[in-house]
Amino acid sequence: MFSTGTGRAERTQLRSSLLTVSKRPTVDSSIVPAGTSLLDVMLRLSGHRQSRITVIDNNEHVIGFLATAEFEQEIEAGNAIGDLSWKTRSIESLLLARLQSANDTDDGDGLPSNLQPVAEEVPCQTIVEDGSLLGLITDTDVFVSLNRIEELLSEATLDQLSGLMNRAAFMQRCREELERSNRTGVPLVLVLFDMDEFKQINDLCGHPAGDKVIQQIAECIYSQLRSYDVVGRLGGDEFAALCCQCQGSDIGAPIRRIQAAVSELIPPSQFPHPKLTLSIGAASVNGTPKVQVTDLYAVADQCLYAAKRAGRNCAYHSGCEQGHTPNRVE
After folding, report:
1. What pTM was computed for the model?
2. Does domain 24-117 have CATH number 3.10.580?
3. What is the CATH number of domain 158-328?
4. Which tens digit of pLDDT belongs to each residue from 195-204?
């Protein structure tokens, strides 16, 4: 993904480097599995005392370090006051206590001096783009910048020309909102928009002019709807909006606002019509159970083609429970 392709990927480089990581210490350290009782730890140390205790989990990953002298001081303190409950406590409980109480013994990096990690250099490749580090690749792991992940997610869900949701992202939101409507009875309306005679713009005025019109139409639709409505470009000159918490009887107002905004746009100079117009189809759900996205879309599409057959530059609506009979939106 980072080393092939065009555009952004061409500027991305993989560079060999070394990554400093924590490893399991093997010198002058007693290795103790997590869950070992303090009594068992003491018995281990009595046979072969090391200067440090290293606590590991079942996968042999290091949980933390503890100086043996401090471990012994904790045991002695418990014995001095007759508190022998320490015998059944696990080693990580003592480690947690040391982590919480040793803040005044750090070496300037925020870690207590007795908990400094042991490091080794691991071969890795750095992923660099335009001078910025995007991530690291080792033999076993890939680390990617959070900022880049967010950017990639944005690129995966947005239509790059219009700035609206792409078809896949929009239809996913439709499924989510329709499931909520089926469950709670909250109404919603799916609206499809198709620009009239758009092919003539591309043929007579060129594709750059068509791209500009797509962007203008997208802005008109987005700006005339509420902030929580969902707007997407389905492809070509077809757009869609999902108006949540909206009754079918109320959809006329936003449709008229969008029609008015589009009519004020200035068409490309060679476009043979005086204004840009839209054909619009809308399908509503008023808490009807078990309505699927395909059903909702099919009703809206039927209404869209009713608008086309009626001469374009108009809107039709039908409720999913009304037998799919399109009615003109005045």
Report:
1. 0.59
2. yes
3. 3.30.70.270
4. 999 999 989 9
